[in-house]
Amino acid sequence: MSIRERLSGNEATAIAMKQINPDVVAAFPITPSTEIPQYFSTFVSNGEVDTEFVAVESEHSAMSATIGAEAAGARAMTATSANGLSLMWEMIYIASSLRLPIVMALVNRAVSGPLNIHNDHSDAMGVRDTGWIMLFSENNQEAYDNMLMAHKIAENKKVLLPLMVCQDGFITSHSIENIQLESDEEVKKFVGSYKPEHYLLNDKEPIAVGPLDLQAYLFEHKAQQAEAMRNAKQVIKEVAEEFEKWTGRKYEFFEKYMLDDAEIAIVCMNSTAGTAKAVINDLRAKGVKAGLLKIRMFRPFPVEEVAEALSNLKAVAILDKADSLNGAGGALFEDVTSSMYVNKKQVPMVNYVYGIGGRDTTEAQIESVYSDLQKIVETGDIGNPYRYLGLRKERN
Amino acid sequence: MTDINTKTPMEKMTIGGDIYCAGNAREFKTGDWRSMKPVWIEEKCKQCGLCFPVCPDNSIPVGEDFKRKDYNYDYCKGCGVCAKVCPFKAIEMQEV
Lengths: 396, 96
Known about the structure:
Strand order of the largest sheet of chain B: 1-2
Radius of gyration of chain B: 17 Å
Number of domains of chain A: 2
Distance between the termini of chain B: 36 Å
Structural class of chain B: little secondary structure
CATH architecture of the largest domain in chain A: 3-Layer(aba) Sandwich
Number of helices of chain B: 2
Oligomer: heterodimer
Largest sheet of chain B: 2 strands, antiparallel
Number of strands of chain A: 15
Strand content of chain A: 15-25%
CATH class of the largest domain in chain A: Alpha Beta
Shape of chain A: globular
Helix content of chain A: 40-55%
Structural class of chain A: alpha/beta
CATH class of the domain at 29-95 in chain B: Alpha Beta
Number of strands of chain B: 2
Shape of chain B: elongated
Strand content of chain B: 5-15%
């Protein structure tokens, strides 16, 4: 029986972590994720968890301590944002290459500079090829639910990869919404205990972790990581099915909102999906067949499924909340268009970079995207595929 | 643990390159990193015992008689510390 509450995204994440009761949490405060370790350290002080909380002096150390703890055989977690994640950079790769199923809450924020503390996805996009599983969350409920599913995915023997649960800084992390929580006992039962096969503190089996891996070996170890990432897909599906049986809340690789009969659609991640749904409801009332595909599982990327889901549309806009500054479109645009091409699906697609540095994304803006898509359908002319949404500019 | 070598396919390799047993550093021979090598001139050696404690690896074997023997070049990286501490010029650094 679920418990009705009202919580911010950060509170929801901290409560999920409390219910998971990990062995170690090592974290350093950074806006907008600061509240997660803050709330969690309160749980530690109040004796509500058995966790060893390591108040480190930097994010590099936060990830290092998390790696050390996980390699030792503990279940270890952390939380960060933006430049905190940047400072973890070196260790982010170490975590995934050592195949340590660490779980991290990433509260998305613009990576400076110039200095900005508000939401976009530039932090997450910076680590999209580091071998971490990446789940995105539209609201506090999804941030909570993804966190409850995280360990069962990451710790699965076929996977053994670190996982980050992303949510939008401030928009989700600091907004209080209604939420359904599960009971401590049921969460404990669902998540289960962590029983690594090999770990440093096992006195029956002395092991070495992270040895020198030169020309004859690194290639195969990277291919093993890639294989584990491919395996993660099936595991993410199975865990979501088990989660649905328990809570009644359904999660797939992506959410299709009014997509099946849609002619035009937006693809986006995190909180913007909520705004898009509101716009779709209005457009549908006016007879416009608008839809949405909201990516939940960004890594591994659901290549075939995305291509299939978008194949019958007449025009699609992919919204990137991070500018890749590469003259070739945002990260999500590249992934979606590549999925389409490889699966031989040809649909007109345009890219919008939007919401940078916490710029508000309004219903009017989203509506303008659908209106642009209608023009593309009518004229068959894509025009410039690399566009901006909500940018101040003298001329378009 | 299975023997992993340069012919082992990826499916048979341990994840992350983990080594599930201890005491195997000696299997990794590092002598080919060397660009200079120490040469022991036995007739000048007084067996004073200053060289082998300063070797960062285990390249100077010591016998039951507490006397040093000739170099084990499998692990000597040619750092030259032994030659530097020898008071009797009994160790000479030479080009490999």
